[in-house]
Amino acid sequence: MESMHGAAGKIRLAVLEGDGTTRELAGSIAQAMDHPCATPVAYHSFEPFYAASTQVRPDVMIVDLETLGQDGHLSRLAAAQPQAMLMAISPRESLSRSLAAMEAGAHDVISLPIDPVAVAERIDRFLIQNTRLPRGESLRRQAAPNSGEPRDLTTTREPFRFESFVGGSARMRDVYDQIRRIAPSSAPVFITGESGSGKELAAAAIHARSPRAGAPFIAINCAAVPGELMESEIFGHARGAFAGTSESRPGAAEAADGGTLFLDEIGEMDLALQSKLLRFVQTGTVQRAGDTRSRPVDVRILCATNRDPHAEIAVGRFREDLFYRLHVLPIRLPALRDRREDILPLAQSFLARYAREEGRAFSGVAPCAGEKLLTYDWPGNVRQLENAVRQAVVLHEGDALTAQMLPAFLLGDGGLSHRHEPVRGAAAPFGARRRGGEIEPLWAQEKRIIEDALDAFDGNIAKAAAALEISPSTIYRKRQSWSDRIEGGDGGLFTGFAG
Ligand SMILES: Nc1ncnc2c1ncn2[C@@H]1O[C@H](COP(=O)(O)OP(=O)(O)OP(=O)(O)O)[C@@H](O)[C@H]1O
């Protein structure tokens, strides 16, 4: 493996500056980076930059597309310096230009004006997230599992990564390509996919790759907060708008000004609030609850749902006019069972992460465990896989993750019969369980099922409700009724639950 680091392990940065960029750009970026940088080299024309790069073998190249001139120069640079992260500077935000630069080999495209701190953050993130291998070698290693090479499941192989995603299946590479393409635009993005398939990661990746990366990314889960509070969460409220509000407060839309607002579980938003959101999307202004003043904000809206939006429109739960305003750039996250080649790289990466966090020695997945993971259907997708690996790491010790360490739901009949299992995660089977010879009452069975679902989603009510195909308010109501039943109804809401 070729080292990407220069002398004394410092990052070598080479910049081809342009008219719109300042002379001090290279130095400012180097200073703002977390990774230690050698003194950067900066040029103002292509040929000397190209010649110097051949000598220096930079780790990061930032090139101004105008100064670069001919189209072929970018691909020439990419081919000559496969070890380097290649970032292109475009004079203005342009989707087609960004696409062309990516196709020529750029890893990232930024537009003027340049914020050296934001650029430094993107380089640091890239250096952390990428395999640090030369491009050609990285691709060869990714291809290896399908190329006839014997699979050694217990060996840690560097997985393919894109932003926070792990997994190099063809279906996910299509998703990464779509993210790269749509990130530079300001148009709304509508992300669909089953629960746990990575919709929020996709939203974060779009923001991180967009020209808004230096501004806030605000995520709101539309199912997590009761309807009447959601308006104030998103749009804020004026002083005295509700009982007990002594201060005026901005909402998420204002907090995201200049950046990105991610509305997760948009299908859960009530119709009155959908009208207000439509007005916001149409006018680009927000009106805090109880306020008469409209305030202009510049946010890019991303939203996600695990429901079928067309079915929601058909039954009148989702406004069609709002849908078409938001559904400008669609992305669909594939279910994990439709990209099984990602299962082991994901499991390896979760194993490494949780072994580190828990101080365990695990270094790989044994073939017996790999077999179980590969043949299960993963109705809860990557989240369920993550939880299964995490549970095994917390409860066991060893060098390799073996089948015996896996949660019980994986050890049954190979798992393929678990297709459409309604509860995600290590849920207990359904059925009228006996307790001391008696049939368990319905409320207690319901409680167990809902608690299993909450466990599987780390206490997240919205996600557990989506998996159970009930509304979050049903869970709130049921919990109230159990606490009334168990504690004689002291009025204390939701005790003993996270989220
Ligand atoms: N490809 C991936 N690589 C690494 N981690 C992933 C990947 N996909 C999902 N995850 C992880 O799985 C969990 C669920 O992902 P995420 O929250 O993005 O899913 P989601 O589709 O938004 O789920 P929901 O619809 O329930 O909100 C998170 O912990 C996330 O980090």
Automatic annotation (TrEMBL):
Stretches assigned to the Response regulatory domain: 12-127
PROSITE patterns: RESPONSE_REGULATORY, SIGMA54_INTERACT_2, SIGMA54_INTERACT_3, SIGMA54_INTERACT_4
SUPFAM superfamilies: CheY-like, Homeodomain-like, P-loop containing nucleoside triphosphate hydrolases
Coiled-coil stretches: none
Presence of the UniProt keyword Nucleotide-binding in the record: yes
Chain positions with 4-aspartylphosphate modification: D64
Domain Sigma-54 factor interaction: 165-394
Signal peptide start-end: none
GO biological process, one term: regulation of DNA-templated transcription
InterPro entries xrefs: AAA+_ATPase, AAA_lid_NorR, CheY-like_superfamily, Homeodomain-like_sf, HTH_Fis, P-loop_NTPase, Sig_transdc_resp-reg_receiver, Sigma_54_int
Keywords from the named record: Activator, ATP-binding, DNA-binding, Nucleotide-binding, Phosphoprotein, Transcription, Transcription regulation, Two-component regulatory system
UniProt GO MF annotations: ATP binding; sequence-specific DNA binding
Protein name: Two-component system, repressor protein LuxO
